[in-house]
User: Which sequence fits this backbone?
């Protein structure tokens, strides 16, 4: 009997202890659950998010530095351009004009021929690579592509020129004058008929589109 009574007392004491500290056990359990959830769920996601943010910041910093370098390069180029004499800029623009000025080119070629005392029988300007059959011999047509970097931005004008009253010496003097013209010109074809004193020339010149 004493043993049974002691066992009951022990059980009662345990129940009393549990009842008295029930809230503490709940708090400890909740804290443990939260800690476990943090390390198993929240922390891995947090680490992944933090890593993603750091990568994004690094990419943005790299992009910023590249744009900053581009801006510095553009500013340096602009400063260098401002130092170039206006006459030099005009000469460069004349070598490769920024438009297809048909009338201007027609007049310049005519003047060059007349300076040598030659007779200009005919002159037609077309965008090279297309037929010359048109109601307007100076009409522009489709561009021919050049085998060079950036050729898509460069247009080609083909000039077909027929000369009369021409001898070999006059033609020989005319060709360098054409090639030394301020605008870039390539003499592609020269057909000379000494008996008829005539010559047919095909000349390519260029412009920025």
Assistant:
């Amino acid at each position: 009997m004493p043993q049974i009574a002691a066992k009951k007392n022990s059980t009662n004491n345990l129940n009393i202890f549990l009842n008295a500290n029930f809230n503490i056990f709940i708090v400890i359990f909740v804290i443990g659950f939260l800690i476990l959830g943090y390390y198993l769920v929240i922390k891995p996601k947090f680490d992944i998010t933090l890593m993603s943010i750091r990568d994004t910041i690094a990419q943005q910093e790299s992009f910023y530095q590249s744009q900053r370098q581009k801006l510095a390069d553009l500013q340096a180029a602009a400063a260098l351009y401002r130092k170039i004499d206006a006459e030099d800029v005009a000469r460069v623009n004349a070598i490769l004009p920024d438009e297809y000025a048909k009338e201007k080119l027609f007049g310049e070629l005519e003047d060059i021929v007349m300076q040598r005392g030659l007779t200009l029988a005919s002159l037609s300007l077309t965008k090279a690579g297309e037929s010359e059959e048109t109601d307007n011999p100076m009409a522009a047509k489709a561009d021919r592509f050049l085998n060079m970097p950036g050729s898509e931005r460069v247009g080609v004008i083909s000039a077909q020129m027929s000369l009369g009253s021409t001898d070999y010496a006059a033609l020989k003097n005319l060709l360098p004058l054409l090639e030394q013209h301020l605008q870039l010109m390539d003499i592609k074809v020269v057909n000379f008929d000494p008996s008829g004193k005539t010559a047919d020339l095909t000349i390519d010149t260029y412009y920025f589109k």
Remarks:
- Residues 2-65 form one domain.
- The CA atoms of residues 132 and 144 lie 14 Å apart.
